[in-house]
Amino acid sequence: MKYSINITETILVTMLVIFSLNSCYVPGQTGIPISRQEENIYYIPSTPVSTTLLEKNDINFNLLRSSSEKFTALEFQGAYLPTKKIGIITAYTNALNKDGKQKYMNFNRFELGAGYLKSLPNNWRFETYAGGGFGRVENYHVTGTSQSNLGIFFFQPAFGVTSKNKLVSFDMISKFSGIKFNVKDSAFDTYQEIHSGYQLASLYTTPFNLMWEPALIFKAGWQNFLFHLSYTNSVNFSNRNLYQSKGNIALGISFRFNTAEKTTSSDVIE
Questions:
Q1: Which of 8, 114, 234, 270 reaches 20 to 30 Å from 176, CA-CA?
Q2: CA–CA gap between residue 64 and residue 67 (Å, rounded)
Q3: Rg (CA), the chain
Q4: Are 73 and 67 within 8 A, CB to CB?
Q5: How deeply is 134 buried, as exposed, middle or buried, from its count of CB atoms within 10 A (0-12, 13-18, 19+)?
Q6: Long-range contacts of the stretch 171-174 (C-beta < 8 A, 24+)
Q7: How far apart are CA 214 and CA 16, in angstroms?
Q8: Closest to 185 in 3D by CA, of 106, 97, 131
């Protein structure tokens, strides 16, 4: 029995099969939606520490809750002025990015620094601090995890003004942070999560990132208890494509005490 082969029909059937197979794939589309991959972020800024309201022998503790569209964080800050012109600051930040019970990111950061303070006319003051620290950012992807350890160096000049009774202050801080990313883990499927894979690749090629993190800080209250409101921005000069938080808003409370038995007018920062 002979079968006649219709070349036209064969071509049409072949094209139909190829089209059917390729209809399942869209160039540039990954297995995991981009919206889910963007729940994983790779850096957040911490609120700078200010010593505007402090005098010699004052010690200060801040408890802040900061947030942006992608994370919420608890920040613990401390400052101490052992002399009129020398200050010591420290800060710890723990941030989470989650939706309901699902956690996507865990960020930790610790810093320690020291600086110089100088009073200016009309209750203004200049201060500058420098220091370092370390941190870690862990991301929980759909197909696995990633982790980067952070080496931190910072320098933050600032101008501030206080009320005469030292109960209200406003600070303008220009913080520069050098962040050294050391990628320790990238155990997820980069084929399924191309966006996330690109972020880790950028940290491999550009491990040192220079950040500019200006902040506006307002404090008001009483001698030993104050309210804190601040906004911090973050600009990455080295890796503008890194998917990171662009800033935070922080609300909190501040406690301050004087460690000397007696404070005199000569203890005011000069």
A1: 270
A2: 10
A3: 26
A4: yes
A5: middle
A6: 171/50, 171/52, 171/215, 171/216, 171/217, 171/218, 172/214, 172/215, 172/216, 173/48, 173/50, 173/214, 173/215, 173/216, 173/217, 174/212, 174/214
A7: 59
A8: 106
Contact 188, 201 (CB under 8 A): no
Mean pLDDT for each consecutive 10-residue tract of the chain (270 residues)? Answer: 49 42 41 89 94 90 93 96 94 89 91 95 95 96 94 96 93 97 90 92 94 96 95 95 94 93 49
**Model pTM score:** 0.82
What residues form DSSP beta bridges with 138?
106, 147
- What is the C-alpha separation between 123 and 193, in angstroms, rounded? 54
What tokens does 27 get? 């160039």
Residue type, 151: G
Distances from the Cα of 148 to the Cα of 105, 114, 116, 247, angstroms: 12, 26, 32, 20
